[in-house]
Amino acid sequence: YYTIDGSDPRLIGGEIRNSAIRLDGGNAITITSPVVLSARVFNGTSWSAKRQIKIFSDNNDLSQFKVTELHYHPEDIINGTDTVSGQYYEFIEFKNTGEAIIDLSGLVLDSAVYYEFPAGYLLTPGHFFVIATKPSYFYDKYGKVATGNCKNFFDNAGEYVLLHDKQGNKVCLLYTSDAADE
Q: How far apart are CA 173 and CA 67, in angstroms?
């Protein structure tokens, strides 16, 4: 049995996951987009160990890779007698809002802040990718681990935020501003 969304074909308790596909000998699997293939052998009473492999494809649909939050220009925080710059708490959050796995390899956040997405990173449906300016401060405030650590800070006066793919094609362009009329 196998799945192509990274989930385990076996449910807790040993049942077969509804989305698991049975593969009989001699059959082929056709892959047309990035997937995380998870497989187990089931002999009727017991399961094998799970095997998992990432499969990449040139057919990578980024249309469901969305910016779900951009936190820039937070207030400074008074911590005892120290002041912590609000810039330390800046982050940008992305989410895979689609049904298919997205390959983030080669994406670059370039302009306000700079971040190169790691090679071989597949984002499964419904999951987030958070890039923070200072991951330790992000963790202290939100109790969550940021996925990435960018260079620089967002400009509090406003600026463009550009995400492009490995060929340099624009994936997303945002403009930040504190001005009410912009």
A: 10
Identify the helix (H) or strand (E) that includes residue 141.
helix 135-142
Q: Is the pLDDT of residue 18 over 70?
A: yes
pLDDT, tens only, 171-182: 999 888 776 555
Half-sphere exposure of residue 85: CA atoms within 13 angstroms, side-chain side: 9
- 92-36-53-104 Cα dihedral, nearest 10 degrees: -30
Rounded to the nearest integer, the mean pLDDT of the chain is 90
Note whether 171 and 65 are within 8 A (CB).
yes
d(Cα 54, Cα 155) in Å, to the nearest integer?
A: 37
Task: Name the residue with tokens 């708490």.
Answer: 89
